[in-house]
C-alpha cells in the first residue's frame, strides 16, 4: 500500500464522529465552516494563501522576534557586565562567577519541559507577558546585588522565569505554519539571538558609561535599565501576543478556517483544542526522536552558550579594552544572523534540514580549531566569526527539524520542551569550561566546544538523518501499514507522526 492509500482505514461510526480529537474539544465553530475558498481555482487559492501568510507574518513574527531579542539580551548581558568589573566589584572568585552562570541553566532546563503545557492551558497572550514581567523584575534586582549570594539567587530565578519563552514560541509558531514554511520563520525568530549579541555589545558599551551615577557601577545600570525595559515590554505584550489560530481575534472566521485546513492538509492538527493527558507526555518520552534531537541540540546549544557568555572575555584577552571588546563582539553576531535566516530559507526549500546541519557544523568546527591552534589575534578573531556561523544557524534548524517530525498537539510541545531543556542544561558545562586560569588561550574551553560540535551536532545529525531516511523507506514500502488496519479515521488521526503516510523530514 502506498503511503497515501487509506483503503484499509474504515470510516468512523456515528458514535466515533462524536469523539473529540484525542478526547479534546475541537473548535467546532471553525470545523463546521464551509470551505471559504470553495469554487476557486488553484491559482486563486494560492493567492488567498499568500495573502493569509503575509497577514500572519506581519502579526506574529516581528513582536516575537523582539521578545526573544530581549530574552537573550537579559540572559547573556552578564558577559558584558563581567568585563566592566562585575566580578571584581562583587569580590567573586572565578569558581563563584561560573557557579552563578550555571544556576541559570539548572532552573531554566528543569522548567522547560512543563512550560509548553502551561502555554497551551493559559493561552499565549497571558503566559508570555506574565513570565516577561517576572524576569524583568529579577533582572532589575541583579543591578542591586552586593555579593555572590545575591547574584546566584537572581540568576536562578531568572532562568526559572525565562524558561517558557524559547520553547513556547517555537511550539506556538509550529501551530500556525506548514512544515515547509516553519523553518524560515523559526530562523528569523532565532536570528534575534544573534542580533541581541550584536546589539548587546553596543548597548553595554553605552550604558557602562553611566558608571558612578546614583553611586552605582556601570554594570549595575546594564541590569537595571534592561530589566525595567523588559517589564514594560512584558506589559505591552498582553495586547501584542495573539492566541492560537482557533481563538485568534485578528483573523476573520474564514481565515481561521483557512489556517486550520492548511495544517490538516499538511498532516497536522496542532492548531486545534485538546485536553492534556499524561499519555501525550509518555508518547514523547517513548519516542526515540526525542532523544536523537536532544543530542543534536546539545551539540549546538552547549556551544552557543559558551560562545555568547565568553565572547567578550575572549576578545578582551586578545588585548582590547572592555569597551572595544564589547564593540568587536558585534560583527560575528551580525554575520551569524544573516546566515541563520539564509539556512532557514534553504532548508525550507530543499527539505534537507539534516544536510544543512551537517554542512554548517563544519564552519564552527573549523572556527574553534583556529581558536585552539593559533595565538595570533587576527586568526583568533576570524575563528570567532566561523564559530558564530557554525553555531547559530544550527539552533533554529534543529528546532525546526524536530518540530517537523513530531505530530500531536501536546506531544510536540513536550518534545520541544525536552529537546530544548536538555540542550540548555548543557549550559552548566558551558559556564565552567572557560576558566580564568586558562587565559589567554582558553584551550580547555575551545576544545570542549569543538568536541560538542563534532560528537553531538555533526555526529548526531548524521545518524538521525540516516535513521529517519530508513524509516521513510519502510513506510513507503508499506511495512508500517499494519499500524492502521482496522482503525477508524479518528483513531488513525490520533497516531500523529506514527501514521504510515506521515513521512519524516530529512
From TrEMBL:
Residues 1-20 have a biased composition (Basic and acidic residues). Keywords: Membrane, Transmembrane, Transmembrane helix, Transport. One of its GO terms (cellular component) is membrane. It is a multi-pass membrane protein. The keyword Transport applies. Residues 1-21 are annotated as: Disordered. The keyword Nucleotide-binding does not apply. It is found in: Membrane. Pfam families: MFS_1. Signal peptide: none annotated. SUPFAM superfamilies: MFS general substrate transporter. Residues 60-506 form the Major facilitator superfamily (MFS) profile domain. The chain crosses the membrane at residues 126-146, 152-174, 186-207, 219-241, 291-315, 327-347, 354-373, 379-402, 414-434, 449-468. GO terms for molecular function: transmembrane transporter activity. It comes from the Eukaryota. This is Retrograde regulation protein 2. It comes from Lepidopterella palustris CBS 459.81.
Amino acid at each position: 500500500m502506498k503511503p497515501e492509500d487509506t483503503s484499509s482505514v474504515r470510516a468512523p461510526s456515528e458514535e466515533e464522529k462524536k469523539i473529540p480529537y484525542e478526547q479534546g474539544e475541537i473548535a467546532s465553530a471553525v470545523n463546521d465552516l464551509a470551505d471559504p475558498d470553495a469554487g476557486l481555482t488553484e491559482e486563486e487559492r494560492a493567492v488567498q494563501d499568500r495573502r493569509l501568510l503575509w497577514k500572519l507574518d506581519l502579526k506574529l513574527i516581528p513582536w516575537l522576534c523582539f521578545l526573544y531579542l530581549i530574552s537573550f539580551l537579559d540572559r547573556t548581558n552578564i558577559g558584558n557586565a563581567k568585563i566592566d568589573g562585575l566580578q571584581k566589584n562583587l569580590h567573586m572568585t572565578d569558581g563563584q562567577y561560573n557557579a552563578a552562570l550555571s544556576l541559570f541553566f539548572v532552573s531554566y532546563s528543569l522548567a522547560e519541559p512543563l512550560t509548553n503545557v502551561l502555554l497551551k492551558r493559559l493561552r499565549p497572550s497571558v503566559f508570555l507577558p506574565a513570565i516577561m514581567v517576572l524576569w524583568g523584575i529579577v533582572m532589575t534586582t541583579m543591578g542591586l546585588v552586593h555579593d555572590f549570594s545575591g547574584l546566584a539567587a537572581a540568576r536562578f530565578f531568572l532562568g526559572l522565569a525565562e524558561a517558557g519563552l524559547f520553547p513556547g514560541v517555537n511550539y506556538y509558531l509550529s501551530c500556525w505554519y506548514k512544515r515547509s514554511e516553519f523553518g524560515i520563520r523559526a530562523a528569523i525568530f532565532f536570528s534575534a539571538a544573534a542580533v541581541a549579541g550584536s546589539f548587546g555589545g553596543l548597548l553595554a558599551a553605552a550604558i557602562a558609561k553611566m558608571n558612578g551615577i546614583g553611586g552605582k557601577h556601570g554594570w549595575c545600570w546594564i541590569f537595571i535599565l534592561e530589566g525595567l525595559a523588559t517589564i514594560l515590554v512584558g506589559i505591552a505584550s498582553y495586547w501584542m501576543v495573539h492566541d492560537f489560530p482557533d481563538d485568534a481575534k485578528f483573523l476573520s472566521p474564514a481565515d481561521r478556517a483557512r489556517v486550520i485546513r492548511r495544517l490538516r492538509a499538511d498532516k497536522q492538527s496542532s492548531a486545534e483544542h485538546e485536553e492534556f493527558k499524561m499519555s501525550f507526555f509518555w508518547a514523547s518520552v517513548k519516542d526515540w526522536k526525542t532523544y536523537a534531537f536532544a543530542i543534536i541540540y546539545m551539540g549546538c546549544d552547549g556551544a552557543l552558550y559558551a560562545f555568547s557568555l565568553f565572547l567578550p572575555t575572549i576578545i578582551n584577552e586578545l588585548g582590547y579594552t572592555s569597551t572595544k571588546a564589547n564593540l568587536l563582539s558585534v560583527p560575528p553576531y551580525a554575520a551569524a544572523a544573516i546566515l541563520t535566516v539564509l539556512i532557514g530559507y534553504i532548508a525550507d526549500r530543499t527539505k534537507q534540514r539534516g544536510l544543512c546541519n551537517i554542512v554548517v557544523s563544519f564552519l564552527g568546527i573549523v572556527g574553534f580549531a583556529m581558536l585552539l591552534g593559533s595565538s595570533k589575534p587576527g586568526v583568533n578573531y576570524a575563528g570567532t566569526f566561523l564559530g558564530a556561523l557554525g553555531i547559530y544557524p544550527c539552533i533554529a534548524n534543529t528546532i525546526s527539524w524536530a518540530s517537523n517530525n513530531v505530530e500531536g498537539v501536546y506531544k510536540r510541545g513536550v518534545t520541544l520542551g525536552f529537546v530544548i531543556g536538555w540542550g540548555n542544561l548543557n549550559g552548566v558545562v558551558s559556564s565552567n569550561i572557560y576558566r580564568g586560569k586558562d587565559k589567554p588561550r582558553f584551550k580547555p574551553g575551545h576544545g570542549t566546544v569543538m568536541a560538542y560540535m563534532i560528537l553531538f551536532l555533526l555526529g548526531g545529525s548524521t545518524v538521525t538523518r540516516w535513521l529517519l531516511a530508513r524509516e521513510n523507506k519502510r513506510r513507503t514500502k508499506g511495512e508500517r501499514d499494519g499500524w492502521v488496519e482496522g482503525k477508524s479515521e479518528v483513531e488513525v488521526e490520533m497516531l500523529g507522526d506514527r501514521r504510515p503516510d506521515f513521512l519524516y523530514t530529512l
